[in-house]
Amino acid sequence: MAKIIVVTSGKGGVGKTTTAASFAAGLAMRGHKTIVIDFDVGLRNLDLIMGCERRVVFDFVNVINGEANLKQAMIRDKRIDNLYILAASQTRDKDALDLAGVERTLNKLSEEFEYIVCDSPAGIEKGALMAMHFADEALVVTNPEVSSVRDSDRVLGMLSSRTRRAEQGEEPVKEHLIVTRYAPERVGKGEMLSLEDISDILAIPLLGVVPESETVLNASNSGAPVVLEETADACYAYLDAVARFLGENRPMRFTEVKKGFFNRLMGR
Amino acid sequence: MGWLDVFRSEKKGSAQLAKERLQVVVAHRRTGGGDHPAYFPQLQQDLLAVLRRYVEVGEEAVQMDIEREGDLEVLELNITLPDTRH
User: Fold this and answer.
1) What's the ipTM?
2) What is the crossing angle of helices A214-222 and A233-245, to 10°?
3) pLDDT band at residue B74, thresholds of 50, 70 and 90?
4) Prediction pTM value
5) Which of A25, A69, A77, A82 is most buried, with most CB under 10 Å away?
6) CA A64/CA A234 separation, integer angstroms
7) Residue B24 forms contact with A (CB below 8 Å)
8) Could you tell me which of B40, B46, B45 has the C-alpha nearest to residue B75?
9) pLDDT at A263
């Protein structure tokens, strides 16, 4: 049985797809057979972030409609073993997804994979509901900014009421907070919500913090998940989050302002 | 306070302010306030209008909330009448 993880946020542009790509890649790099699915039908982008846009022949909607089988639609990542991608359809709209079809596909994938990562579209409409419906765990991606935090709270409400686990009265979806685009120096100046503020307000445990980083844009430009950019803080931030998810105890890093040469010299 | 502190104190406030504002909206949603049916505000206004045919009351005289108990939704209604003893 695979564990189903939804990457969600409510608000757009906070780093859902970046997180889904890197988290799935990180799990695969740790030896777990993982597939990442793009639920953003009509506005697919996971394929671009993963650098496999030219290899998409069949997509998630084709599979649901029986126009292709899973083997034909799954794209094996060429750089990372154990990692597969299922692209969203670019030509349909969100109504192309139906709950029964999604369930059928996830059940089938569940026989073969250890982790299924569902990359949710922004918003709280059908696509987002489909992405979270069968989830066992959720990564709630939040920027340290008021509208993102509020939208995350809204999504937490849906995770606790609109998912299969909620509807069947099972143990609730396990929620994890991922804070992205974090800028410690602005937090230090009192200009930005701190990690403590955000996890206080949302009242869910922090799984990872990804610092604001130029590398994220560079990585998306070249179609490589951030975890492959071995010189970047953001890479290690995601690898840490994956390790914590797998039960390792790793202290948070990249949460303090980097010490300059002068301060280090002074022992500060 | 040095003249530079004028700028600093303004910056100090904004994250704190964000936190306080968010705590209010999040608490509101989590106590069911964010999940009211769409007709809620209109119902509140209508109740106020009826009430005002008989007594003079302010906007805050009618407090409404929805409580969920299992499958049941209970409309909780609190109407505060003005003190008429004097």
Assistant:
1) 0.84
2) 90
3) confident
4) 0.83
5) A25
6) 35
7) no
8) B40
9) 61
